[in-house]
From TrEMBL:
Record-linked InterPro entries: Acyl_CoA_acyltransferase, GNAT_dom, N-acetyltransferase
Protein name as it appears in the record: RimJ/RimL family protein N-acetyltransferase
Biological classification of the source: Bacteria, Pseudomonadati, Pseudomonadota, Alphaproteobacteria, Caulobacterales
Pfam families (UniProt xref): Acetyltransf_3
Residue stretches making up the N-acetyltransferase domain: 11-169
Source organism (scientific name): Brevundimonas aurantiaca
Keywords: Transferase
Molecular-function GO terms, alphabetical: acyltransferase activity, transferring groups other than amino-acyl groups
Domain of life from the UniProt record: Bacteria
């Protein structure tokens, strides 16, 4: 199984690993970080099962989560993922779903965009998907703006686990390159 490492100007994205557990537990215990995602900090048990799920995605689907670290010094920044969650949501999500999250100390410095662009470039080159999707709380304005900056467009408001969410879509592969060149796109 090919679990690629991605490198950007400032970041290295490595497939999630058991060695990331301590950093993940600290991230998911942060109430500011989880506010728009789970609505509450996660327990160590929940983080463990999340890590197992993320590890399994690589073996089952051939894509998954990357741990984001600074190239200089190796500090843990967060993660970016391409996942198949099989969410119980209407409309169903049948395409690869992207998600991302950065520790609050690293937000607002362009790291999320840099990591997301690397993951999307990998997805465009390696997945045979007509589109990728993401699901964002309408209150998470920073993530909404980031999604739109990298080419996602809103297509449906719905609810997930009794909370309002906005679904976004972005054409994949060659479709993305064509959309990017259209006047007013991006």
């Amino acid at each position: 199984m090919n679990r690629p490492t991605l490198t950007t100007e400032r970041l290295v994205l490595t497939p999630v690993d058991l060695a990331d557990l301590e950093d993940l537990q600290a991230l998911w215990a942060d109430a500011d970080f989880t506010r728009h995602i789970t609505g509450r900090p996660m327990t160590t048990e929940e983080v463990w099962f999340r890590l197992l799920r993320d590890l399994g995605q690589w073996g089952v689907r051939g894509y998954g989560s990357w741990t984001i670290r600074l190239i200089e010094g190796g500090a843990y920044v967060g993660n970016v993922s391409i996942l198949d969650h099989r969410r119980l949501i209407d409309p169903p999500i049948d395409d690869p779903e992207l998600g991302w999250g950065l520790a609050p100390a690293f937000q607002g410095r362009g790291f999320a965009k840099e990591a997301l662009e690397a993951a999307l470039a990998w997805a465009d080159a390696h997945l045979r998907a007509a589109r990728t999707l993401c699901m964002i709380s309408p209150d998470n304005l920073a993530s909404v703006r980031l999604a739109e900056r990298v080419g996602y467009r809103p297509y449906r408001r719905t609810t997930y686990r009794d909370e309002p969410v906005q679904l976004f879509e972005r054409p994949g592969g060659a479709n993305w390159a064509r959309t990017e060149r259209e006047p007013g796109a991006g």
